[in-house]
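Re-run with default settings, no changes from the original entry. Doing this only to confirm the output is reproducible before filing.
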Amino acid sequence: MKIKRQIIVFDAADLAAESTFWAGLLGGTVVADDDDGWHSVVVDGEWRLGIQLAPNHVPPDWPDGTQQQQVHLDLHVDDLKAAHEEAISLGARLLQPADDLETAGEAYQVYADPAGHPFCIGRH
């Protein structure tokens, strides 16, 4: 089997909030499908994420709740403080702060997007 493209899709009860968040965080735009059940996030002309309408979506309860996460993204950045501020301004919630943002080297923080999906922003 030869895979032509990897597709990452997030379920969300609020398509606009979820797709706008990820487009903002990734520096892209939202393309809404005609049937109102799907949004694509496009970055530099390339499709990056799909957001699928799931009216009964229940956000995961990270790290060990009864509704566990199924998948998460790790985003690597050079400036963790700036990335944190941008994520929060777009609607992310901080779930687990880094032990020390000031020390050089590896560090990461865990967030939830507007639909509650956990993701990490880290400096590696």
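The first strand starts at residue 9 and ends at 12. Strands lie at 9-12, 29-32, 38-43, 46-53, 73-76, 93-96, 107-112, 118-123.
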